[in-house]
Automatic annotation (TrEMBL):
PANTHER family for this protein: KTR SYSTEM POTASSIUM UPTAKE PROTEIN B (PTHR32024:SF1), TRK SYSTEM POTASSIUM UPTAKE PROTEIN TRKG-RELATED (PTHR32024)
UniProt main location, coarse: membrane
Signal peptide stretch: none
UniProt protein name: Trk-type K+ transport system membrane component
Any one GO molecular-function label of the UniProt entry: monoatomic cation transmembrane transporter activity
Membrane-spanning residues: 36-59, 97-122, 158-181, 225-248, 260-283, 315-337, 384-402, 439-463
Species name: Microbacterium marinum
Subcellular location field: Cell membrane
Length: 480
């Protein structure tokens, strides 16, 4: 009809409330990408909670209790790997498919996922959305300030980064599944069973989740070193982060052309992998419950495997609850650090540790600025690194205190499982499966905050930033 106008920003037709909701989501995606990201992750968790609660999702055909369904949904979407039920026997084939889909959706990351969905709603990536997606590729993540010269992926490369996220997930998981399949046959797994379990293990490795589809876990494969090596490879590729994969795909082995972020991530990851393995080897070689009953080769290999999995992988051959106290402390330290930024791993991220270590080294040397590989690291990156550590430590401490009070369990066991949840690792001393419902909800909140990211969470709940047009007088308090 003449004179009728149609709002091009909303879908044609449909009730007025539908158009208002669509418009509100578009405005939120444009005005506050961080809050939109948290909203999307929350909506996914609620959706998967409802799906896991369905009778068809459980092997016994009965509805799963709310606490267990919610915890599984959070652990799946946040690619954590902790569980309050036996993941291999409790869920039906439909439930296992939900887990497989959920971890792959969650693996894309809260910021990248929000950018993609924002693209669908707004039809294009606006400047703020580009800043968001680019922010997911550097240590600043959702930092509200201007994009600085140290940004890993420039705005013009955001589209390529998003393509890399989707394609690398598909290609790497498919390649791993193809390689894993014959190794499972070599371990005596039925060919039809392996046809499902191979892609499942592939997804759990690359997403750093650690769920196993079979009741025995990794026990049937503990002597299958090729299978175990493929799992470690998948965990490593998932934990270095999509920006590093993006940089390596462009520059390959031209090390001098690697970005500073890629160099810091690869170097720090390798150092932690070797140091962690050495620590476990020294601390557990005489423990009869873990490495003490193994020969020299098995002990060395399992030490490296445990080091890789405590970074964020979540798979385990030895009983984590049987580790010595000193080894649990080492495991807590490795888990708290986690993997690379914008990766499927959790923790405070290896680049955060690297930046803080470089800042300490520069201060000890009396240097005026922090630099590495001929590049200066801006002070705002250092402040964000400190904020990430402070917020992460606060979340872990509060959750540990609350759960210890609720359960009366040994604090070392609670601390290990809480850090495992916060860093989305998935290893457990056995405590998580025995938590009462109130403690289950606390642990679920810890996993959510750990996956969404402390900086993103802070930016999502903070008020709009205010510009300050003046500076205050300087006064130096005594520190140290």
């Amino acid at each position: 009809m003449a004179g009728t106008t149609v709002d091009a920003r909303a879908p044609r037709g449909g009730p007025a409330w539908h158009r208002r909701v669509f418009s509100a989501l578009k405005d939120l995606a444009t005005a506050s990408p961080s809050r939109f990201a948290v909203l999307i992750f929350s909506a996914l968790i609620l959706l998967f909670t409802a799906l896991f609660s369905l009778p068809i999702a459980a092997a016994d055909g009965r509805p799963t209790p709310l606490a267990d369904a919610l915890f599984t949904a959070v652990s799946t979407i946040c690619v954590t790997g902790l569980s309050t039920v036996d993941m291999s026997t409790h869920w039906s084939p439909f439930g296992h498919v939900l887990v497989y889909i959920g971890v792959n959706v969650g693996a894309m990351g809260v910021l990248t996922l929000a950018s993609i969905l924002g693209l669908v709603i707004a039809k294009r990536l606006g400047l703020r959305a580009k800043l968001l997606a680019a922010g997911d590729s550097n240590p600043l993540r959702a930092h509200g300030g201007p994009v600085n010269e140290g940004q890993t992926v420039r705005l013009g490369e955001v589209g390529a980064l998003l393509s890399t996220v989707a394609l690398s997930t598909l290609v790497i998981e498919a390649a791993l599944a193809i390689l894993i399949y014959p190794t499972m046959l070599a371990s005596g797994i039925d060919p039809l069973t392996a046809l499902w379990e191979a892609p499942f293990y592939s997804a759990m490795a690359f997403t750093n989740t650690g769920f196993t589809p079979n009741a025995e876990g990794l026990i049937p494969f503990e002597q299958n070193y090729l299978f175990m090596t493929l799992l470690m490879t998948g965990v490593f590729l998932g934990s270095i982060g999509f920006p590093v994969i993006f940089a390596l795909a462009r520059q390959r082995w031209h090390l001098r052309r690697w970005t500073l972020h890629a160099k810091l991530t690869v170097i720090t990851t390798t150092v932690l992998f070797v140091v962690g393995a050495a620590a476990f080897l020294i601390l557990e070689y005489d423990n009869p419950k873990t490495f003490g009953s193994m020969d020299a080769w098995d002990t060395t290999f399992q030490a490296f495997f445990l080091s890789a999995m405590t970074r964020s992988g979540g798979f385990a051959v030895v009983d984590v609850g049987s580790l010595g106290g000193a080894s649990l402390v080492v495991g807590c330290m490795l888990m708290f650090v986690g993997g690379g930024s914008a990766s499927t791993a959790g923790g405070i991220k290896v680049t955060t540790l690297a930046v803080l270590a470089l800042a300490v080294w520069s201060e000890a040397k009396g240097r005026q600025s922090v630099s590495a590989f001929g590049r200066r690291i801006p002070s705002d990156v250092q402040r964000v690194a400190l904020s990430v550590v402070a917020w992460g430590a606060t979340i872990v401490a509060l959750s540990t205190i609350v759960i210890t009070r609720m359960t009366g369990a040994p604090v070392e066991d609670v601390l290990f499982d809480v850090i495992s949840g916060f860093a989305t690792v998935g290893l457990s001393t056995g405590l998580t499966a025995e938590l009462p419902d109130p403690a289950v909800y606390v642990m679920a909140a810890t996993m959510f905050m750990g996956r969404v990211g402390t900086v993103t969470l802070a930016a999502a709940v903070a008020a709009t930033s205010r510009s300050q047009l003046y500076s205050l007088p300087v006064e130096r308090p005594i520190v140290g």
